[in-house]
Write a structure and sequence with these properties.
The protein has 6 helices and no strands. The relative contact order is 0.09.
Amino acid sequence: MSEDKPFGWRPLSDEQKEKYRQDGWKDDAIAQFEAQNIYSPNDTAVLAYEISIATLVAAAKRHGAEFIHDVRSELTAKSDKGAASDSVEDRVEAEILREFVEDGDWESLITRASGDSDG
């Protein structure tokens, strides 16, 4: 990475640039998009996610893989309850949980907890 680029900057892929062109953007506008293409995640979200994954793995190492299955079941129950709520906030959070439960790589967590991988 060039010294004149801010921390977190990353170039646009050729595919991203082509998509902008197809959407009617000119090269100077695409260059501006690329100059502002900085990865800046929410610090709290990154920390919360990484701490929760580390906690799951550590607890499963101590208590067995069933611990991870139990956590997944709890999240599923919370998602189901929220999805049936009258509260918009509950329904939105339920959808986030549902996607996490469905899309999460639970087997890799179990593998890490069993010591079969460095994770």
